[in-house]
Amino acid sequence: MSRESVTVLGLGQMGSALADAFLAAGHPTTVWNRTPAKADALAARGARRAATVAEAVEASDLVVVCVLDYPAVRGLLDPVAGRLAGRTLVNVTSGSPEQARETAAWAAGHGARYLDGGIMTTPPGVGSRDSMFLYSGSPEAFAAYRETLAVLGDPIALGEDAGLASLYDTGLLGLMWSVFGGWLHATALAGADGVAARAFTPVAVRWLSTVGLFMERYAGQIDDGAYPGDDATIDVQLAAIEHLLHAGRARGVDGRLPELHRELMAKAVAEGYGGDSYGRLIEAFRRAPGREEPDTGV
């Protein structure tokens, strides 16, 4: 069975992993990198090495770009923009939603279909069905190349707004760092009493599945704008966090992270929302200190 030809521009660790996954799945793969030597290993495994960006773009109808940032994307593609007509550009370079939307408009202006991508894994996870790859932009492009993109990981379409993949990507990274921070704080707390991280972590991971159920419940409350305290109310959790802070102080563990949570809870209680669910605290993030109200023109 013939496989779709693919071009990969940019052969850093991630770009090389993408190209390798396409090759492993039997896709004829053309590669280009500013430093040609980075293509040596891929060429040895069967990739076609392009001498120029123009040659690389012309080799495939599907062009995947993975470079440092969006200015680098435009730096590569502006000189060959006339060759993009009729092709699909999949940009998995990290950036902002605004940059993604601007690049989608630029691609459309040159007759190319555009997908912006968010890679929710590190290079060793590329090629695994357990790894999420987020895409937003042209629904037609996603439908046409879904099977090809699936060799990289589980392809998830977020919608026609090209900025959504970047928006989800940055939000999910923030979630990851918050989870890491909470886990490291808890591991330090347990470790102060001699509990090994390897012993504590399996219990922590199991607990996260329960936390996920709370998140799903609160998601509906957030969309509805109503936060019934039918599980654990904020005032109850405010009392409970004092135990965490006390245990941390007694063990010399840095308490800045739980102190932030306590501050948010205490403010909600002071405003009269102590009987609401924890989901109510999203309102604190929506009105961050120093944030200006949008100009409505009224």
Automatic annotation (TrEMBL):
<dbReference type="InterPro" id="IPR036291">
    <property type="entry name" value="NAD(P)-bd_dom_sf"/>
</dbReference>
<dbReference type="Pfam" id="PF03446">
    <property type="entry name" value="NAD_binding_2"/>
</dbReference>
<dbReference type="InterPro" id="IPR015815">
    <property type="entry name" value="HIBADH-related"/>
</dbReference>
<dbReference type="InterPro" id="IPR006115">
    <property type="entry name" value="6PGDH_NADP-bd"/>
</dbReference>
<dbReference type="InterPro" id="IPR013328">
    <property type="entry name" value="6PGD_dom2"/>
</dbReference>
<dbReference type="GO" id="GO:0016491">
    <property type="term" value="F:oxidoreductase activity"/>
</dbReference>
<dbReference type="GO" id="GO:0050661">
    <property type="term" value="F:NADP binding"/>
</dbReference>
<feature type="domain" description="6-phosphogluconate dehydrogenase NADP-binding">
    <location>
        <begin position="6"/>
        <end position="155"/>
    </location>
</feature>
<comment type="similarity">
    <text>Belongs to the HIBADH-related family.</text>
</comment>
<dbReference type="InterPro" id="IPR048666">
    <property type="entry name" value="RedAm-like_C"/>
</dbReference>
<keyword id="KW-0560">Oxidoreductase</keyword>
<dbReference type="Pfam" id="PF21761">
    <property type="entry name" value="RedAm-like_C"/>
</dbReference>
<dbReference type="InterPro" id="IPR051265">
    <property type="entry name" value="HIBADH-related_NP60_sf"/>
</dbReference>
<feature type="domain" description="NADPH-dependent reductive aminase-like C-terminal">
    <location>
        <begin position="161"/>
        <end position="287"/>
    </location>
</feature>
<protein>
    <submittedName>
        <fullName>6-phosphogluconate dehydrogenase</fullName>
    </submittedName>
</protein>
